[in-house]
């Protein structure tokens, strides 16, 4: 939805990484619920992507073996001042919940970003066994103990996240980013 404030449209960036599509699917669900003009960027496909020029920034990343992929680390490193300077939302996709899930979230993003974020949450994750690579499948079973297709993606959490982001609507009229 395009939200106009006076002459201004709220420009929102969702920068994400995905391996098997869940984090991207969550980004798209989120985009539908956000008020503003949303740009979706897969930073793996677009390594030169920038966070410059947006009013709000959201980052999304999946957890693999307790860690995130280097492309998101690189994006955060390259765009740190821009990311720190705007209303921020952070999410992860992973199958672990509770304490283990939160540990994944804490490891995924630098502490400064986690402290600064309006909202940081776990959306859950999903897996289709037949889509896993030859080496991924045994690692997945070892890490998660799950042997079937599985999803615990929470549409409620995505909706609540969008609500929190929408509540913070204050794009400054200055040209500086
Ligand atoms: C090899 C492998 C390792 C994984 N390790 C973790 C993990 O450490 N913690 C976790 O919460 N989820 C783990 N998962 C689950 C993924 O995070 C989950 O499937 C997520 O939805 C993947 O997102 P994507 O489809 O965007 O790549 C793992 C999945 C695979 C295949």
From TrEMBL:
Residues 12-166 form the Flavodoxin-like domain. Coiled coil: none annotated. This is Flavodoxin. GO terms for molecular function: FMN binding; menaquinone-dependent protoporphyrinogen oxidase activity; oxidoreductase activity, acting on NAD(P)H. GO terms for biological process: heme biosynthetic process.
């Amino acid at each position: 939805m395009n939200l106009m404030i006076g002459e201004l449209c709220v420009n929102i960036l969702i920068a994400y990484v995905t391996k098997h599509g869940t984090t991207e699917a969550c980004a798209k669900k989120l985009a539908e619920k956000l008020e503003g003009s949303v740009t979706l960027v897969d930073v793996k496909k677009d390594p030169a992507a920038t966070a410059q020029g947006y009013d709000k920034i959201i980052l999304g990343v999946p957890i693999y073996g307790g860690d995130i992929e280097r492309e998101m680390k690189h994006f955060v490193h390259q765009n740190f001042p821009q990311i720190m300077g705007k209303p921020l939302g952070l999410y992860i996709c992973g199958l672990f919940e509770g304490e283990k899930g939160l540990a994944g979230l804490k490891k995924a993003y630098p502490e400064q970003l986690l402290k600064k974020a309006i909202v940081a949450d776990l959306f859950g994750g999903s897996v289709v066994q037949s889509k896993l690579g030859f080496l991924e499948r045994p690692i997945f079973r070892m890490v998660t103990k799950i042997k079937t297709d599985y999803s615990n993606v929470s549409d409620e959490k995505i909706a609540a996240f969008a609500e929190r982001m929408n509540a913070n609507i204050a794009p400054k009229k200055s040209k500086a980013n």
